[in-house]
Amino acid sequence: MAEYSDDRDVTYEIIEEIGIISTQDTGWTKEINLIRWNGGVAKYDIREWDPHHDRMSKGITLKEEEMRRILELMRRRRSSARSRRTPVRTESVVSAEDVSEALSDSEDDTVTASDSVS
Question: Which of 26, 36, 63, 100 could form a cystine bridge with 42, CB 3.0-4.6 A?
């Protein structure tokens, strides 16, 4: 098992700033970036950063294959949700004139017992 002391320097190089996910009132931003940690292979990284990228929170790093898998899972979820979606009922405003017209039309088409007896 590897041990890390608190005085160990962690180096990072932000290769690509992909985007900001959210911003806190403090100015810190949750971001997704491509980062090379300690000179290693660049990985996708999701964490919060201070406005100057000097301090950071704990986060998660993902290899290329892991990021592709997440994107595939999200696309599948979206596609599945779309196929399960029930039609949205919309309300429409009907005027009094529309109601009167519909009622009068239905009265014209109504056959009464006296009409059918000849």
Answer: 36
